[in-house]
Please model this.
Amino acid sequence: MGLVVQKYGGSSVADAEGIKRVAKRVVDAKRNGNQVVVVVSAMGDTTDELIDLAEQVSPMPTGREFDMLLTAGERISMALLAMAIKNLGHEAQSFTGSQAGVITDSVHNKARIIDVTPGRIRTSIDEGNIAIVAGFQGVSQEGKNITTLGRGGSDTTAVALAAALAAEVCEIYTDVDGVFTADPRVVKKAKKIDWISFEDMLELAASGSKVLLHRCVEYARRYNIPIHVRSSFSGLRGTWVSNEPQGDQQVEHAIISGVAHDVSEAKVTVVGVPDKPGEAAAIFRAIADAEVNIDMVVQNVSAASTGLTDISFTLPKAEGRKAIDALERTKASIGFDSLRYDDQIAKISLVGAGMKTNPGVTAGFFEALSDAGVNIELISTSEIRISVVTRADDVNEAVRAVHTAFGLDSDSDEAVVYGGTGR
Amino acid sequence: MGLVVQKYGGSSVADAEGIKRVAKRVVDAKRNGNQVVVVVSAMGDTTDELIDLAEQVSPMPTGREFDMLLTAGERISMALLAMAIKNLGHEAQSFTGSQAGVITDSVHNKARIIDVTPGRIRTSIDEGNIAIVAGFQGVSQEGKNITTLGRGGSDTTAVALAAALAAEVCEIYTDVDGVFTADPRVVKKAKKIDWISFEDMLELAASGSKVLLHRCVEYARRYNIPIHVRSSFSGLRGTWVSNEPQGDQQVEHAIISGVAHDVSEAKVTVVGVPDKPGEAAAIFRAIADAEVNIDMVVQNVSAASTGLTDISFTLPKAEGRKAIDALERTKASIGFDSLRYDDQIAKISLVGAGMKTNPGVTAGFFEALSDAGVNIELISTSEIRISVVTRADDVNEAVRAVHTAFGLDSDSDEAVVYGGTGR
Model:
């Protein structure tokens, strides 16, 4: 008998019908002889509605109380799911993050899991119950306050529980059929990936793929928990993410796993920076002190005539204002000329472990973009990823061109099966 | 510096505006130099909406999960209230029933508080915070499961916390101005009571007055915690409930506190019961085994010719079916003739400690009803209460007649100030 952790997102449990459909799926897994632990998100738009209420009573909702508020959402969905499962004749018990032993640090709104002590969950499933656990939430080691894990936190809850319980697999149910070679909304011929390595999945997540978040994949890799991403609507086999392919898991694209894109970033250019030691450090210290996360960083060689250089970096648009303010405050001490802010950019990334040993990949990527008439503004590479920044207007065409150039297109015209929400 | 526990009901925190209004009131109490602990119910119709969801996924929602579900409501309101208070520049921390140390038995959906260990609340207020506590909920001593206290449970939470913290007063904020000499919807000339004893308040609550529930008053009496019932809308002085009047608390009606009525009960008559020892016991054992709570019980003397008697009792209409079924099953063994079920009845009660030493009260009560043409079907008395059962159609006229006969009418025509909901 195996132990399976299943995670269902908000769109899968958006209403009573969704909860009943999920209950059937959970019971099926139990009937197949597994011990089953289910991690569940808040129903549909519940979290957004709670945030809206918070903003009505306070312009700056604070950490501890905001977490207390948001965690009500999972409490509702998990209790309803437990009831729906009982109604199908199986025993179920629901547990808050705190009850499930999800111990975090004290950073409200984006806490990190530091330990999982799943004693109550273990007892519950050993007694024959299906255990339902609230995703996205935990309790702080110091202070015993309720915390939330930030965006995509329920996936991390699921993987962390799977690790602590030594589960065979962590199944992430969502509203798409799996991980695709590109965003199927952009590339009609995108193919569902049957198996992908943790490494490639990490790069895709870092490059704009929304299906799994970086933190969740990182956790799964550290504890070697295979993830199976699949649709809660279609029930089809989805995408396996693990160290090595198992059994019949197919590895179709030895070189390239997929093309990701991201239009949520902006580009800041610091113009006229004196080209001497310590200048770049001062700039990025100012950014870090403002708690802004940056992504790509590019510095051009300085013009010999002036001794000045330009430094560009990308960052989430939402943090643009903060970064600009922080830099303006240090303009005099650092001594640059000016700042340029550009939020009409897109990042396009090609990911695949195979490119390590295939020197033609970079050239092929640039040629495909060039043939499509797409201008490249910044380039950044890792061992298994190449990313470029282009104009935002060019993004769809660029992704399609690269997808085709690397032979990722599927034979059928419409490969994607979407779930109920059409997201 | 005093310690005040305030409780706000669902209608007081029905929306963002209500929460902000309550926040101001809480901050006022803090500014007046008090330590403040606030107990809050779920917003407006939240609990009903959650119950509705539960019924959509399961026809018979079970205890443990149902409690987990319902407690999400207070979690939302308390977090929002804490944010609203912080927004006014004061420190506030919210606590679940479990965090506040509200320990209960394991009877889900109607748990009883068996202990309160308010260590975290004490620490929080000693550090200068306003502590916000979720009403209606606790955690079971065995199993550490989330429990709810049943209808009106938030009032009990407030009184229990006030007792555990040795508060000076427990303020119950509601949508009416206090306790009245009769239901102001029925008696336009009903007067707000300035002070009432625990004993009289207990009898009023048992007789149909909805402002405070019996369990809450009982708890307050046991620990001698004065209750101040008042409106969260008007801010006027309300009704004090305590052992003895203090300071300027007025005791206007030495004999009679008020008239209560109740149309939520039905009457069962067991016809033709053999008048011999053990028959009544067998009947009420059957009722008790069905977990039906009964109220009044009346047995007439038996007719000498037949040796048979009739036994009547009243019970909540909602439990009528259960009681009838239980009795039908034991008909043969008990040996009565038939059952009569009547849900078109009303109970009218006159309450006042003064009636102990005023023998004319009973006579005056019956005369007033007789003058109003109201027929009496059952009579039951305690030391400080007389209750009668009449036809439901007669209830308003009967209450008004009794109210006038005992000099309770106010001079003004419209004594009542209702809050925002008009309930």
